[in-house]
Every structure is written in structure tokens, then in C-alpha cells.
Amino acid sequence: MAYNTIYEKLTADPNDLVGAFAYIIYKQQKVDYFKSFGGRELRREEVESFHAIAALDTSIAAYRTQGEALAQAFLNVSLDQLVERTEAATRKDTLHRQIETVNAGLVARLDSISISLDAKRTLTGWMRDVAGNLLVNLVSIFVLGALLLGYRFSGELQQSAEKKVGVVAPGDAARAVNTEAAPSAGN
Predict the structure, then answer these.
(1) In 36-169, alpha helices (H)
(2) In whole angstroms, how far apart are CA 153 and each of 56, 139, 141, 144, 157?
(3) What are 66-80's pLDDT values in tens digits?
(4) How many domains in the chain?
(5) pTM above 0.70, yes or no
(6) CA–CA separation, 9 vs 60, rounded Å?
(7) What's the domain range around 79?
(8) How many CA atoms lie within 13 A of 126 on its CB side?
């Protein structure tokens, strides 16, 4: 049997990926051809017939076209997987950076609160809190007292105005009637 040159026809050089895929397709077709005879030993003419058809320029072009399609599909799947891994890594890195930023902010706030609490735990801090509370209580007493005095002053002012105008309040009218009736009963 003569040397088969199909590999050299399909591949331009050893690094020709499309040619390698075309050769794989050729080999698969050859296996399928041999299987189509039901496992019996092929005659030399049948094998040479397959090689003659596979070596035709149209067959070589068809193998290369199928090889290009297979290489493109392989490349697309590989690129899709790479994009998915890169996106996942990017999302993970972004999330990690956001968590670190939030964590740093929380640590800074907790440190600030801790410093503030430590300052209040001293005698000076305690006395400052007591003085602040005392001042608030005194201001509250002053405001309540002012409101009470204001209310009382308002009532006295109203009575004074009513007396000047001659309007008698209902409670004063009852007292005036009782006062007038008492001397006449004694006569």
C-alpha cells in the first residue's frame, strides 16, 4: 500500500489548527466508512477508493471547511468560558472591595464611638454628664416656673381689665350678690 499524503494536504504546517481539525474529521469519516462494511475486512480496492475520494481537491476543501467550523466552535466555547470566569472574578473582586470599604467605615465609626465612651468613663466625663443634666433640669424648672407665673399674671391682668371695664366674672357676681344680701338680712 502506498504512503497516504492526506495529512500533508490538509495541514499547511504542524501548527495549523484548522488543518488538525480537518484531519480529525477525515479520520472520523474513515472510521465510519470502515464500520459501514459491518466489521468485515475491506479489500484493497475499497480502501484505495476511499483514499482516492478523500484526496480529491473538493474533499480536501470540504474537510478544511468543516475544520474551520469546528475550530470556530471550539474558539467560541473557549472564549465564552474565559469571559464567564473573568466576569465571575471581576464580580468577586468588586464585591470584595465594597465589603472592605464598608468594613473600613464601620471600623472607623466603632473606633470613634469607643473613644467617645472611653472619654465618658473618666471622672471628668462623669462630672461633665452630671453638670449637663443638672443644667437641663434647672432650665426645665425655670421654663415651667415662667409659664406658671405668666399664666398667673395673665389671670390677674384679665381681672384688672374686667374691673376697669365693669365686667364682672361669674364667680365674682355670685360673691357680690352674697355680700349685698348679707347686710340687709341683719337689719
Answers:
(1) 44-54, 57-120, 123-165
(2) 122, 21, 18, 14, 6
(3) 999 998 998 899 999
(4) 1
(5) no
(6) 7
(7) 1-121
(8) 3
